[in-house]
Design brief:
alpha/beta; 8-stranded parallel beta sheet; about 30% helix
């Protein structure tokens, strides 16, 4: 079975089995891609529904008869309605504070729009659904600072009032002092199952068992995390600068998880997630750290539980995925903290998975973490709907150890996605992928990334420490620096980007040779960005590293301590060129070639730029293991460590003038 993946997102028309059969015939006749992922986010039927079950059975039988594997969407977040019918109440909410200044009578009134919360076609919010959670009297000293606060839940009332075609929430209060601000915390229920609900995993098991009955080879649930309410300031959802959010997720079960993970309550400190008390700034930093730690560990716990359930129910070879990434950008990933705690590096997988333009140094890090022979990146062209971007993405992915998760054969409800179904498009993907599949054996090895870029999770994520205030933006001044610096370093020296929390569960450790190691990857040098405030386990990991192979950048007590012990340090974040120079000075090898990279098994892989789907010219002349290698051909070339074996789809390769044939051919 080849490693390639094609996504097929369904619409309700496939519930007519005659329509489904025609589409299945078309897909199977035009591509040999071995793994078909069936997405049902837009199907108006629940997972256990009779019609959806019949469609699943039919397509799985057809795919199996054709020698293909079928992976079906199995996302409990889509099952809010049947879940809460079985376990009534206790939803999750999106909370935010809204405020008004008291008049001379100590009273006030204001309105806020009701906030429908969407999960694909499912949503809550009709009828002005909301809940008033808390009320505070504040003596404000700035937009998000105060000198004193008094909890006074009894002075405020709320109600939903009709406003045009929708609703607004009217807040009224009495009993404040003139000039005080009254801040009320309002929550809007989410349509998904609360991720902290104790019955989430038992219910997921029933879904996995149903998937087994249907005959699925694997299941998936992508973009894990709570839902968000994104406000588009201007009508261009791909302009990250024109988005903001103002809500955080919370539930009674989330509160219990916070106590379990941090030993501290959260609810009575909600005010400090949005405001800072003068002279007690550390209090806000602490509660933000606690909130993000809870969200991150909760999502990690979910993933581990779902992974183990899938393996127990469907078998050890069953596929679990897909990508835990949400926004898919090179940078401007600040919203990941609010959705899932930026837990990507701990989302348990057999195959590392990302999407869109996520940095290659993150893709390789995840692959090293989970010992993946290949990683997958879902691609739909970032809304450009340009088929040529699939070609560039696929050949570049191959070079760095990856494969493209093609989205998709059909995707009728998402206008930003290019459907590959039209005549000629799917054929071009198949021709290209047939060449990529030649490397499923030899060449399915990860790049040897000898430099570790470690970023301090707490310093980068804590919005109170950074000075970010509501509404929050996609841009995070520290995270964006980390991401853009890492991206530029990777273009010169292969590196992995990893957060400091990886040291907390020992996935990142100091090995017996005294080197940092993450999964299968050992590093020659470590550069730490923003080390201040890291968890103790991360600090202890950094302390244990050899000082002559360590650089700390961004300041703080740990940096001062270790620089005194012999490590190098910078108060600022160096440029990528400076980091590359430092890395080479610490023994990091030149692990890149023009168009190629060194792999962990000592072999080397080249790919062409990939402007076309096939027949991209590739001309090489270099010395490998003492032999003069000359290649004139197309698309890609792999050569073994000893220079005696090769794989390429088309061309002529000579070693010291002797022809070296491809061991795998089209």
């Amino acid at each position: 079975m080849n490693r390639s993946i094609m996504y097929w997102k369904w619409d309700n028309d496939v519930l007519d089995l005659s329509v489904l059969d025609k589409k299945t015939d078309d897909l199977l006749s035009r591509t040999q891609i071995g793994n078909i992922f069936i997405g049902t986010q837009w199907i108006v039927d629940r997972f256990h529904g009779e019609k959806l079950g019949a469609a699943f059975r039919r397509v799985i039988e057809r795919l199996h008869a054709a020698g293909r594997k079928a992976m079906i969407e199995c996302c409990i977040r889509n099952e809010g309605e049947p879940f809460y019918r079985q376990y009534p109440g206790e939803p999750s909410y999106l909370l935010s504070f809204y405020e008004c200044e008291a008049d001379e009578h100590g009273a006030g009134s204001f309105r806020i729009p009701h906030e429908p919360v969407w999960h694909y076609w499912r949503h809550t919010g009709d009828g002005g659904e909301h809940k008033l959670f808390a009320c505070y009297r504040l003596k404000k000293t700035g937009a998000f600072s105060y000198s004193s606060a008094v909890r006074c839940d009894g002075i405020a009332v709320s109600r939903a009032v009709k406003a045009g075609e929708g609703y607004e929430i009217e807040i009224s209060f009495t009993g404040a002092e003139k000039g005080e601000s009254v801040a009320v915390c309002v929550g809007f229920p989410q349509p998904i199952v609360d991720l902290a609900h104790p019955k989430l995993l038992p219910y997921f098991r029933t879904m996995a068992e149903h998937a087994k009955e249907l005959g699925a080879d694997g299941v998936f649930s992508d973009e894990w995390g709570y839902d968000m309410i994104l406000k588009i300031v201007k009508p261009n959802p791909y302009d990250d600068t024109e988005l903001n959010l103002r809500h955080i997720s919370w539930s009674e079960h989330f509160e219990s998880k916070c106590l379990e993970y941090t030993k501290r309550q959260l609810f009575d400190r909600l005010l400090d997630l949005f405001y800072t008390k003068d002279g007690e700034e550390e209090r806000s930093k602490e509660v933000v750290d606690d909130y993000l730690r809870t969200l991150r560990l909760l999502c990690t716990e979910n993933e581990e539980g779902m992974y183990e359930t899938v393996k127990e129910v469907l078998g050890k070879d069953a596929f679990w995925g897909v990508h835990p990434t949400w926004w898919g950008s090179v940078d401007s990933l600040n919203f990941e903290f609010y959705k899932n705690g930026f837990y990507w590096w701990d989302a348990k997988r057999d195959y590392a998975q990302t999407d869109e333009t996520i940095l290659y140094c993150i893709r390789t890090a995840l692959a090293h973490r989970f010992s993946s022979p290949v990683w997958y990146n879902m691609w739909y062209s970032m809304g450009t709907r340009d088929i040529n971007t699939y070609y560039t993405e696929t050949w570049r992915n191959l070079r760095y150890g990856g494969r493209t998760h093609y989205l998709g054969y059909e995707c009728p409800n998402e206008a930003v996605v290019l459907e590959l179904k039209p005549e000629g498009m799917l054929e071009s993907i198949e021709e290209m992928d047939a060449r990529v599949r030649l490397f499923d054996g030899a060449g399915a090895v990860q790049p040897d990334c000898r430099l570790l870029l470690l970023f301090g999770y707490e310093a980068v994520s804590n919005w109170a420490d950074i000075g970010m205030t509501m509404p929050w933006k996609p841009q995070n001044p520290r995270l964006d620096v980390v991401l853009n610096t890492a991206n530029a370093v990777f273009s010169e020296v292969l590196c992995d980007l990893v957060p400091s929390y990886a040291a907390e569960n020992a996935s990142l450790f100091v090995n017996g040779r005294g080197r940092a190691q993450y999964g299968t990857q050992e590093y020659d040098a470590v550069v730490v960005l923003y080390p201040d405030g890291m968890a103790k386990a991360a600090e202890d990991f950094v302390r244990a590293l050899p000082k002559d192979r360590l650089v700390l950048c961004g300041g703080g007590a740990l940096q001062e301590e270790l620089c005194a012990a012999g490590a190098a340090g910078r108060e600022d974040i160096p440029s990528a060129a400076e980091i590359v120079s430092l890395a080479k000075g610490m023994g990091v090898p030149a692990n890149r070639r023009e168009g190629g990279v060194l792999l962990q098994d000592g072999s080397i892989l080249f790919t062409a730029e990939g402007k076309k789907h096939i027949k991209n010219p590739l001309s090489l002349d270099f010395v490998w293991q003492g032999k003069r290698m000359r290649f004139e051909g197309f698309d890609a070339l792999w050569i073994s460590q000893d220079g005696t074996r090769a794989v390429y789809p088309e061309g002529t390769l000579t070693a010291d003038g002797k022809t070296l044939s491809s061991e795998v051919t089209l």
